[in-house]
Amino acid sequence: STIQKQRQELQLLIAELKDRDKELNDMVAVHQRQLLAWEDDRQKVLTLAERCNLLNNELNKRNEIIKSLTKRLKFLESQQNDSKTTFENTQQKFKELSQKVTDATVHCQALEEKNQSLHCSVLELSAKTGQLQAREQELLTMLKLKDEAILETTDHITEFTSKFKKLESALRAAKMEEFSLNKEKQDLKLRLKELILETNKLKDDLCEKMKENSKQQEEITHLKQENGCLRNELALIVEKAKRKDQLLQFAKSKQARTDTELSSLRQV
């Protein structure tokens, strides 16, 4: 009976040992799976670390791009301010030239009026000269008819001759003045044409400056939009990096738990 009892106890111990062996085998299988999972997690962590380095490099590159774009934006803003200053100077110069053209036009009109009055004076002097010539012919006829009144007629002829010479000299002076006025008028017309050409050239320069200014404003707007997109993309990359850091922390905590369980299993 004692042997029977010992056999039963041995059978119970063997069954219990088998159960323990099965449990150990299960624990070894679980441990193997945990080791594989840990290796997989380690590979994932290494991959994430490499990707994080790549993202950091890309972030540095994007920061450099943003810095260069900011510098270019500042340069374009300064260039725009210079263009505005040039535009204002051009407008001021255009106003001055317009005032000069107006003054030249007024002066030209005044000279034309003066020329017209001188022309009328010349016509009057010519009419008077014709009248004096007719009177001279009448006096010559009277001299031929009246020999007695020759002395008196000679005095009259001398007087009228001096007046005629004075009128001729006045006519020559008027013609010279008319010629100088015509020359001055021609010079003023040429100056007016030059001022008009310079005004048109300034208008063309003004249009080109305005076009260039509009192009620079469009480029600045485009750069601002691109800068905003890059900032948004940078924020997304930073958020992704934060999430990856969180995943890495989760993986590290999981690895720590796995190491703790492994050490406890090894102790068992």
What does this structure look like?
Residues 3-34, 59-114, 157-233 form a coiled coil. It comes from Pygoscelis papua (Gentoo penguin). This is CCD62 protein. By secondary structure, this protein is mainly α. The protein is 98% helix and 0% strand. It is built from two helices and no strands. The protein has helices at 2-145, 150-267. Helix 1 packs antiparallel against helix 2. The relative contact order is 0.11.
- Percent helix: over 70%
Largest sheet features: none
Distance between the termini: 36 Å
**Oligomeric state as shown:** single chain
Count of individual beta strands: 0
Estimated structural class = mainly alpha
The average pLDDT score comes to 83
Rg calculated over all Cα atoms: 57 Å
User: Outline, from the CA principal axes?
Assistant: rod-shaped
- In N-to-C order, the SSE pattern is HH
What's the quick description here?
The protein has 268 residues and is mostly helical. Helix content is 98%, strand content 0%.
Describe the SSE topology.
Layout: H1 2-145, H2 150-267
Coiled coil: 3-34, 59-114, 157-233
Keywords: Coiled coil
Protein name: CCD62 protein
Descriptive tags:
single chain, 268 residues, mainly alpha, 0% strand, rod-shaped, CCD62 protein
